[in-house]
Design brief:
With 164 residues, the protein is mainly α. The chain has one domain. It contains 8 helices and 3 strands; from the N terminus they run ββααααααβαα. Strands 2-1-3 form a 3-stranded antiparallel sheet. A hairpin with a 2-residue loop joins strand 1 and strand 2.
Amino acid sequence: MRNIGFCGGSSIRELGPISDVMLFFNCVGAYVVPGTRKDWSLITDRLYRRYVRFEDLDETSGLMAEVKRAFSSVSSTEVDWSALDELPSSSSRLNAKQATLDLVYAKYFEQFDYCVESAKVFNKSWKIYQPVKVAISDLPAFMTDKKRPTTEYDDLDGKPFWQQ
């Protein structure tokens, strides 16, 4: 089973299996994006499929805070969690018994904020931006992913690297 996490700066913060992380982004698409006129591509494309550019860190953090607020009004009973149980290699780390989605995904919001701060500190200290992104957190796949140039992410069509 492959584990996925957020990374940025000198940090990698594990979230869980691919199915958990995919469900997070599916919930964003189902419960946050519809009915708003806001451009969510910093979350639904840049974070999901590519990496967050340094100049977009603050705006992406603001959008992630909005996701958390929106999730606080969504009962966890609205989500079909059965898909996680049906996956043969899934050992979900989500607690679907929490009352609302912001509680189910509390760790995701904390880990994202941690990686954003790590990326800012790393950039300030070393003048190098290590991008915030979703990545495979297992070694050695993480090390391979860490060496991947951002141009490969920019040119990516289809599934994100962490799903391949």
